[in-house]
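User: Please predict the structure of the protein below. I'd like the answer in structure-token form so I can feed it into my own downstream comparison script.

Assistant: Understood. Taking the following sequence of 402 residues as input:
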Amino acid sequence: MRPFASTISLEEARRRLDAAVRPIERRERVALAAAAGRVAAAPVVATIDVPPFARSAMDGYAVIAADTVAASKETPARLRLVDRIFTAQVSTVTVGRGACAEIATGAPLPAGADAVVMVEETARGGDGAVDVLSVVHSGQNIGRRGGDIMAGDAVIGDGDVLTPSRVGAIAAVGAADVDVFARPRVAILSTGNEVVEPGQPLPPGHIYDVNRFTLGAIVEAHGGIADPRRATEDTVDALIAALDAAADADLIVFSGGSSVGDRDLVVDAIAARGEMIFHGIAVRPGKPTAFARVGAVPFFGMPGNPTSCLSNAYILLVPFLRALARLPPHAPRTLMIPLGRRIASAVNRHQFYTVTVRDGVAQPAFKGSGDITSLSRADGYIEIPADQNVIEQGTLVTVTMF
């Protein structure tokens, strides 16, 4: 066994990770239909006005506002109907004094008209004329040309995350594709002679590969592209070969082999190919987590135990990956609720303790770092600082929801 020479605090680990982030520079052009959630790599500038013509904001009648100055239910302004205008139809009729045109929502405003009376404020006369029952003012109920976007406006800025509404703004100016930053490709690999691919027979003494799938799901949910690799054996040569094969990725994530046993050899492989930035954090679960650089590629060595691996993926990998992908920090929902049962914690280790939320109470759910159900059956986690060894039942705690 090779015990940890030392561990660093969670705060120091986060500081070193922040200092090591190099946001991705690679760019690509994608179809607008595939752009949601991506990060714009260049401004999108409008080449047209939006709307490209003055249009009615509601169903009603296009009028000259001056014809309605005395209109009321008692003394309606009677106007002759000269046209009916629907969407995608440009009227050839000019609306003059004493005239109006029936118009649908979104239809182009006819020449001469400067307002729209909503249909609810009108009545049809027996002679086909239209009675206007209320006053409208010039510009009322009209969407003016360029009222939303004018040609030359930047509708999207460099670095903007393309939310559904921003995708809509790009569509509104007629762009069919957009320049975005590439999603970081993350090579994911589990280590260990005992690891077997799900779907295969399970020999005695072996376990199915859990971490490759939990890590892949984390990566895909936070801006990366999961690039899973076949599990590798616990030998220095095999680990070095796996590192070399993953050198084309933007980020490498191994699970297992980062603890202190005789077959925990990731440290040796990193020594042969890169530089260790930290190995060992004063947290529970997840103490054996390592971070390094292999050439220019950042590397995470995650614990092999499924709960430890996934827990530190949420706490450390997600912020790093999102910064790499140029996404804003993750902001999970939090609840402040009472704790349902007393929890004891190891002194001098910052603990992340999983809980379920039942009837407004946080119930402890942590079973063990090797038990994936510690997370799969949990709704979130609470944090227990390193200087605190117990939280009493009934204490208000902040639950960070998964």
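That's the full token string. The chain has four domains: 10-25+183-324, 27-47+157-181, 55-143, 334-401.
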